[in-house]
Structures are given as structure tokens and as C-alpha cells.
Amino acid sequence: MSEQLHKPNIDKPNVVSTEPLTTALIDSHINDDVCTDGTCAAETLVYDIRRSRYLNITGRCTLRCAFCPKHNGSKQIHEYQLALSHQPKPEEIIPLLGEAKDFEEYVFCGYGEPTLNLPTLLAVAKEIKQRGGRVRINTDGLGNLVHRRNILPELANCVDCLSISLNADNEAAYIEHCRPKIAGSYAAVHAFIALAPHYIDTVQVSAIEGLAGVDIVRCREQVESYGCQFKHRVLGALG
Fold it and tell me: What is the pLDDT of residues 58-86, one digit of tens each?
């Protein structure tokens, strides 16, 4: 990617230029039956950190980040084991939401990329909003690339905040550290970041200090040029 980042045409936000995807790839991310056996019943679908309730709705991801615990032999975040054997459905998550007044926010963040289970995400987020809760999604910003459409208008109806992982200020470092499964991912995450503030009230974009070849100052400049809040993370420190 050139030093000058290419912003998408905001007048036509439904058009996102991406590399072609196969139907099989998209289906492999999205489709699964509800799991009802004993193993699935024991899986961690929600977990609490401070006064937030986290929702673990998929184990699948569009990235294979070298710094991610699950690619380094761990299935655990804090004290929670988050590996999943299936794609949870809304009816599995909604009974576990608790009282909205008891939590500062609900965060879609678990063992995988939440937009890969978009039907569950949207249904649960709408239920949270109906109960008066606040919704945040932690995402790799590749939802438009995977679904081959702009999903932000759908998210805008039920999401208060997006936290997007950029992780690198250049494509070579992004590929080295994030190891995307889909061609064109670096351009796609920038396009998503540029569009997001036009739909979502609060958009945070993070990058990690400590990754080789990443200029954290340049990351901040890129993020702020899109009108988003920059979140400075440090390698090895969990949120």
C-alpha cells in the first residue's frame, strides 16, 4: 500500500473494493448448527471483566495473529477458557445477559472475530439495546471484506462503540504479525476504519507497541486522520 492511504468514497458507502472471496470461504465462517451436547453446554459463552460482560460468540477468525494467545498454545483469557466447538445462536446467549443495569457495557469479544457470527451478534445486540444496555464490538475490521457488503448500517442500529484492531502502519508488518487469511485485508481494514465514524458514535482503533516494524506514532496519525480515537496498546498486556 502506498504511503498515502486511500479513503473510500463516503458518498457510496455500500461499495467496498475487496479481493474476490469464494462462497466456500464465507460459508465456512458463518454457518453452524446449534450445539446442545454436554461439551458445548460447558463452554464459556459469557465472562465478566470489571463491570463489563463479554460475549464469546465464535472461535473463528479472519486473522492468525502471531501475538494472539490461541496461536501460542493458550485457550485462556484472564481466568476464562474460551475455546468453542460451535457457533452459538442467539437463544444460547440471550438467557446469559443478566440485568443490563449491572454492567457498564456488553462487549462482543472472545476467542474469535464476532462479525463472523453476524446473525447472532445482531440479534443479541438488539436485545441488549432493548434492555437499555450499551454495546461494544471488538473487531479486526474485516467484516465488510468477509460479507462482501457494508455491514456498518446494520451495526449502527444496535452498537454504541467499535474497537478496531489496526495493529500496523504498513501492509508488510500487518501481514507479518496478523497473518490474514484473505487477500486485501490491510486495505479493507483501512476502508472499514474510514467508514465507521459515519455510522457508529464512538470508534476506537488500536495498535500495539512492541511489534517489529510497526511505527506506533504513524499508527496514531493514520487513525486520527480518519476521525477515530487512537488506543495505544502494549505487546503482552491484556485488556
Answer: 999 999 999 886 655 555 555 567 889 89
HSE (side-chain half, CA atoms, 13 Å) at 65: 20
DSSP string, 20-68: ---HHHHHHHH--PPP-SHHHHTS--EEEETTEEEE---S--S---TTS
Cα separation, 146 vs 181, whole angstroms? 10
- Position 85 scores a pLDDT of 87
CA atoms within 13 A on the CB side of 77: 22
Who contacts 26 (Cβ-Cβ below 8 Å, separation ≥6)? 146, 147, 148
What are the cell numbers at 165?
484492531
Residues 216-230 pLDDT 10s: 999 999 999 999 999
Other beta carbons less than 10 A from residue 9's beta carbon? 13
Q: Which whole-number Å values give the CA distances from 135 to 113, 165, 208, 216, in the listed order?
A: 16, 17, 24, 28
Torsion of CA 78, 238, 66, 200, to 10 degrees: 110
Q: What are phi and psi of 168, to 5 degrees?
A: -150, 150
Q: Mark 104-139 as b/e (b = at least 16 C-beta within 10 Å).
A: ebbbbbbbbbbbbbbebbbebbebbbeeebbbbbbb
Decide if 113 contacts 140 (C-beta within 8 A). yes
Other Cβ atoms less than 10 A from the Cβ of 145: the count is 26
What's residue 42's pLDDT?
Answer: 72
